Amino acid sequence: MPSLESCPRRWQPLLRLVLFVSAYALGTKLGAVLAFPPELVSAMWPPSGVALTGLLLTRHREWPALVIGAILVEPFASRDAHWPITLASFVVAAGNLVEALVAALVLRRLVRFHPSMDRVRDVLGLVGPAALGSTLISATLSLCMLLSDQRLGAGEFWSAWRVFWVGNAMGVLLVAPLLLTWLSRGLAGWTRQRRLELTALLLLLGVATHWVFSMPPTAAPPATFHPVTYLAFPFLLWAALRFEARGTTLATTVMSALALWHTAHGHGPFAQSAWHNDSVIFLQSFLAVASLSGLFLASALSERRRAQEEVSHLNQELRQSLQTLATTQAALVRRERLAALGELSATVAHEVRNPLGAISNALAAIRRLAPQTASGPAGQLLVIMDEEVQRLDLIVNDLLDYTRPVEPRLQHQALGPVVEGALTASLRAGSSGITVSQSLDGPLPPVALDAHLLHVALTNLFTNAVQAMPSGGNLVTRIETATREGAPHARLTISDTGHGIPVDVQQRIFEPFFTTRATGTGLGLAIVRRIVVDGHHGEVAVHSTVGQGTTFTVWLPCAGEARTLL
Question: What is the reported pLDDT for 38?
């Protein structure tokens, strides 16, 4: 039934009952209009579809009220077209509701019916148990009651029974799909262009159907049918291909309404004489075939679309799983390599540092025992030995830092003091001709960081910038807020005016043991990447132009909407 979420919960069952009874009464009025001699039985009984829709879209505990309301309203809604209200009128109404109850139970329990009718089994369930099966109950019960009440002659029983049965079946096939599909989904998922296309489709279908059924009969009985009769089928195919069940049911309703109206007035290819028995049979067969063809095609297309969407979703999940697997495997290989390198580094550090310590102690002893060696050529050699010992010790320390697992202790704190400390430490050994410029983009939220590890990473970046300007230059640092991958980040840029980095070198600059310096280890920027990316879940990038300078950019995720510390 229509969405009543805006109403108080306790009033919703009552409002659904009022809407159902009103729709059932309106359908009864329409069905009574479509009842013509000699059978005085409706060629299409819309209340059958209304009743089935109401029972399928409501809970079981609301069914008794719906059934009683429909039984009470049907005789009064149809009394203008039939005989006076008697007990037989209520029995006929009860038979129509028993039909709907049986169909609803079978569809719910056995078919597991979807009101959107986006499966072939839903259409089969509606056609078999509902339209063809349950309508036998109401047709038999109602016609027997009319026969016993002498409203129907014995010779007219079977012809009237056939029209009654097919009329109720047509009500289920034409009205129930329209109400079910549109009440369950409405216009959801359709763009404005799609809605305009549906409007154009319905207008064209209406014009074509009106033209076909407004023509006088082509011949006296038995009629000969012209191929133009089936002009509406391309529009039904259009509706099924583009709009699936919702568009198909709406197009079928437009076509059926026009066909019934023109045939009732003796026009169209099926009009032998106004509402002659043959006319009703031909028209009902035509509408049934058209409706079923459209519904089966639409449901098959819906199943195909869902299957394609499911395959696409599974492919996407598979790609994500493969990507995750590849990332995990790469991380595992990297850890294994780092573990092997760590063992090797520990061994090398132990074996190298012992001789280095002995050499350093020997140099100190030489200076103490022979002070005269502090000057002259011997002193220069001692200085060279000291520098090489320090260089070897630095290499060992870098190797140990790179192979040591990064286990940061992240705390929410300001980024500015860490940057300031790393910059100060780097400038102590730099050129005196460097001009430093710092910029802070207003108050910034705190960042989750390990101050010690981040100090090591930023010191390496600042040291590289200072070493790129041996004759002096400009060093610019800037901290600002930025959005990266939809999340707030703090962005730190470090720019120098040094010699720059070639493009081919930039592609390998973060690789371990890659360096363009004669005395470098090639581990500084690799350590920076490990600390920033692995330790702080951030990102680091480089942009450089040869002869103009280099800019390193570091993104660090903010700690959230906390109070600003900068």
Answer: 56
In order of 72, 96, 506, the CA distances from 68 in angstroms are 6, 12, 81
Which of 375-384, 512-521, 545-554 is predicted most confidently? 545-554
**Helix or strand or coil: residue 165?**
helix
Helix (H), strand (E) at residue 183: helix 157-185
Here the contacts of 531-537 (C-beta below 8 Å, separation 24 or greater) are: 531/406, 531/408, 531/453, 531/454, 531/456, 531/457, 532/454, 532/457, 532/556, 534/406, 535/406, 535/407, 535/408, 535/450, 535/453, 536/408, 536/410, 536/448, 536/449, 536/450, 536/453, 536/454
With b meaning 16 or more CB within 10 Å and e meaning fewer, what string describes 126-155?
Answer: bbebbbebbbebbbebbbebbbeeebbeee
Q: Rounded distance, CA 217 to CA 56, Å?
A: 40
Instruction: Specify the pLDDT at position 432.
Output: 66
Distance (Å, whole) CA 151 – CA 86? 11
pLDDT for position 149? 73
Cα 380 versus chain centre, distance? 73
Q: What is the pLDDT of residues 172-207, one digit of tens each?
A: 999 999 999 998 888 888 889 999 999 999 999 999
Express each pLDDT in 109-131 by its tens digit: 999 999 988 899 999 999 999 99
As a whole number of angstroms, the distance between CA 132 and CA 224 comes to: 28
CB atoms within 10 A of CB 557: 18
Burial class, 13, CB count within 10 angstroms (exposed 0-12 / middle 13-18 / buried 19+): middle
Contacts of 199 (CB under 8 A, 6+ apart): none
- Residues 6 or more apart whose Cβ sits within 8 Å of residue 38: 156, 159, 277
